[in-house]
Structures
1.
Amino acid sequence: MASPSASSTKTKTESNEQYQASLKNIGVKPQSGTGANIVLVGPPGSGKGTQSNRLSEHYKICQLSTGDLLRQAAQDKSSDEGKRIRQTMEAGGLVDDHIVMSLIDKNLTKPECSNGFLFDGFPRTINQGEQLERLLESKQKRLDAVLEYAIPDELLKRRILGRLIHKQSGRTYHEEFNPPKESMKDDVTGETLERRSDDTTETLNARLNTYHKQTTPLIDFYRKRNLHKSIDASQKVNDVYQQSLEIVDDFRKQPSYKPLSVDEEQGSVRQMETSVERNDFDETLTIKTKPINNQIEVDTSSLSKNFLFVYNSVTAVLRDRGII
Ligand code: AP5
Ligand code: MG
């Protein structure tokens, strides 16, 4: 994760050979080929930042974390926009789409992104997803894979409340799962580690709520475009990493990606209902058709977080099997 003071697009200095060698050392099977366009979707603490550092190094692509870019923008104490961004982040809500999109637009043109990009925590709404699609189309680019880091909310509290960051470098530690060698000190520089100001129980609850309400619809959005795969993010860091590589490489092996047309997309979830109406006045029959949605319509905002997790998992399996 990049620091607010550092740029969030990373310049790669390590050669691919060196990196492949380092992967062997930690027992991760090396994969071939660089360059990919990846989206990471997942709740706070699911490991997006942790994995995106590694994945962007592996594929030699830029890492764009909208969280990091916004934290950087929020540091501008003199502007109203900086203040609004800060307040929204502290409250666990989502920053306005137009601010986020302009950050993406600006950063995507950087030379570090010429070999591909990894979006960490972007898009977060259907609107952002649609705007990204148009932006990429205008640049004649496309996404290769959308990885969802799925994990029950209960496990996230420990991860978030135990997180320690080294702001200057973006290095992330965890009191319990990945402690620094010396308490509260960065392993490399010895500088003091900090906590993120939104890593409190109260803001975490708001962030989780925002994720379930506004971001999870994106999973269906990308499933319909044949780009989505879910990974169990409660596994060890290396296991999540290994599976992420396998999935991205599988998607990249597909000869060509073609998004579903609107008709195909609707056909995959809808059938037509036909009704016949008789008009006694002029003795004519009118045949009417209307699309029916064979997806289960549920107002997910009324579900508890735990039940919502189960609901999303079950509907994902049913959809994958073509049952709904
Ligand atoms: P952002 O910075 O993206 O925060 P987030 O989505 O809440 O995610 P986190 O960064 O907290 O978690 P992570 O998934 O990166 O986990 P990490 O790898 O650090 O966004 C912040 C805010 O900015 C948002 O709330 C919103 O206001 C705004 N924003 C951002 N993007 C936006 C957008 N597109 N539109 C509108 N607003 C936007 O891991 C967490 C901890 O767990 C670490 O300590 C790590 O060491 C540990 N850990 C990681 N993986 C494992 C593992 N497998 N096992 C054990 N521990 C692990
Ligand atoms: Mg992060």
2.
Amino acid sequence: MDKGSVKLAPSILSADFAHLGEQVAAAERGGANRIHVDIMDGHFVPNISMGAPIVQSLRRVTKLPLEIHMMISDPDSFLDEFVEAGSDSFLVHWEGNNNLHRTVRRIKTLGKGAGVAINPATPAGVLEEILPDLDQVLVMTVNPGFGHQPFIYSTLPKIRHVSQLIARLKRGCELEVDGGIDERTAQLAVAAGANVLVAGSSIFASSAGVSAAMHRLRSAINHEGLILKDLEPSLLKKEVLCNLEW
Ligand code: DX5
Ligand code: ZN
């Protein structure tokens, strides 16, 4: 894979909301390709976050695409409101949706990009039938609901599996990862086949500042060779690493 084509999607969940416009502008200067907006309802996940008015405000301050990660029990009921606010694409979860195909069709009918997200315990195989209808797949690399969580390494073989499904069933579909992405785990996720990286705390909570953190993440992805510092020992086992493309 051409590492230069990997897209960065900073998640504003960890941003300073008193300075949201400036933080998003800094992410844009640092090379953000889109802005990832996490919507939580306290029911689908044990946390609440933000709603469509934030998207409306963001729309006024950035031209970057706004992708909406719907961590809510009834995404269908809120699609119109978020489209009206200026959203460009939606990531809806496989878990808990009895009519996923209908939700995806509805998003496409609204003229927006459609992606399906799967949680760490959900196998890649559930995507097989819906994949031809998708623009994106989102593999959660933490359990959804909170920023600042550690990357779950057992999702790496699944990222690889999803990339094989995409190659077979829907070439060009984006493979995005979300959760615990930093300079080191970004390398692993890209080696496994991811081509869009969501990063929240490693960008917006970085002491280096938002723009500098974006540049660091980009250089880590382009870096030749693996940054082995602090790598989980079980990952150093040949059988895990040899399944990734370095
Ligand atoms: C978690 C959200 C993520 C979150 C990632 O449920 O979907 O987008 O912002 O945060 P970090 O990058 O801190 O793990
Ligand atoms: Zn997210």
